[in-house]
Amino acid sequence: MLADAALAVMWLGLTCYALFGGADFGAGVWDLLAGGTARGRARRTLIEHSIGPVWEANHVWLIFVIVMLWSAFSPVFAAVMSTLYIPLTLAALGIIARGAAFAFRKASTELWQQRLFGACFALSSLLTPFFLGTVAGGVASGRVPPGLAEGDVLTSWLNPTSLLGGVLAVVTCAHLAAVYLCADANREGRPELAAAFTRDAVASGLVAGVVALAGIAVLHADAPELFHGLTHRALPLVITSAVAGLAGLGLLARRRFVSARAAAALAIAAILWAWGTAQYPALLVGSTTVTASAANSSVLSAILIVLGAGALVLVPSLWMLYATFQRETADQQSSQ
Questions:
Q1: Whole-angstrom Cα distance, residue 155 to residue 87?
Q2: pLDDT, tens digit, 9 for 90 and up, residues 266-278
Q3: Per-residue model confidence (pLDDT) at position 49
Q4: 283 neighbors 289 (Cβ within 8 angstroms)
Q5: Contact, 138 vs 222, CB < 8 A?
Q6: 282-299 in b/e burial notation, b at 16+ Cβ within 10 A?
Q7: Is 289 in a helix, a strand, or coil?
Q8: DSSP secondary structure, 105-138, as one string
Q9: Nearest to 98 by CA among 184, 173, 197
Q10: Nearest residue to 17 via CA among 67, 84, 82
Q11: Engineered SS bond to 274: which of 8, 9, 104, 234, CB 3.0-4.6 Å?
Q12: Do strands 282-284 and 288-289 pair parallel, antiparallel, or not at all (unpaired)?
């Protein structure tokens, strides 16, 4: 019971990182595709304004997930970190380079500096979710055995399921960011930007759907246990994700941007929980279960108690950060 509770809390943190950090990465993808200096200025200004106050806070969720895995399921932590250290290192470097470039671009005055740091920020935003997606694919396809560095350090993340996970992570992050930016542009009274990001959101949503459909064949051939779980136990969640994604596209067409945000978030959250449900009770497919890898009950109890106490501070603080930023934007718009 305690192990399952710890796993559920960790998965909730992973979901929050996908929804907040994912949109953050996706915004960088649209920064990359915004166009030249003059043509892309309005888009980049909106992107910078939207993610500026929150981009550092979003990574709190990644730290939370890593600490939870290390504290509650240390054998799984050791296996994943030692086998998949190459993509994890590349993702960490991408996060660092992305944050530094974002800060330096804002402080730069020369055009060539802004272009240099902007390119670093955008490319890191594209590559980081890709590498994180390959990590998920390696775990989900059963290529991470228990023990220290027991898996192949290359084929564990250079395989069909991992590449599918990387591509799907990039396109879903881009879709989520475009949906969020539609609402931001509309709230700031920029209908032309809202329309542009609506087109981007619809296009990226359709691409994500195509990738997901193509992934059926990939998973059937390369990750049969995951495929079986997704098409049986987790099928209701998979259907929920598909329905929410289609509903989100319809809401975008009707310019119901706030509702479209909720639908897009539900689609991504549902597919993450579908993965967890399909794999449960295994944390390492084919070898290690939740119960077998969990810490003893006294450690799990202490972790959950500390998390409950910490949530009393963290959750209201994050809520205030996001609410203040959104309210400030709305107030600025009404005063114009």
A1: 11
A2: 999 999 999 999 9
A3: 83
A4: yes
A5: no
A6: bbbbebbebebbbbeeee
A7: strand
A8: HHH--SHHHHHHHHHHHHHHHHHHHHHHHHHHHH
A9: 173
A10: 67
A11: 234
A12: antiparallel
Name the residue among 127, 124, 136 with its Cα closest to residue 165.
136
DSSP strands (E only) in 172-329 = 282-284, 288-289
Quick check: helix, strand or coil at residue 295?
coil
Of 281, 129, 141, the C-alpha closest to 208 is 129
Which pLDDT score, from 0 to 100, does residue 332 have? 46
pLDDT band at 327 (very low <50, low <70, confident <90, very high): low
| Token pair listed for 185 | 């542009």
- The tens digit of pLDDT for each residue in 193-248 reads 999 999 999 999 999 999 999 999 999 999 999 999 999 999 999 999 999 999 99
How many angstroms separate the Cα of 199 from the Cα of each of 71, 129, 141, 292? 43, 22, 34, 48
Interacting residues of 76 by C-beta distance below 8 A, sequence separation 6+: 69, 146, 283, 284, 288, 293
What's the token pair of residue 100? Answer: 């530094």
Reference 278, options 223, 214, 227, 209; nearest CA is 227
pLDDT confidence of residue 326? 67
Secondary structure E strands in the chain: 282-284, 288-289
CA dihedral 187, 190, 196, 199 (to 10 degrees): 30
Report DSSP state, residue 144.
-
Letter for the amino acid at 233?
R
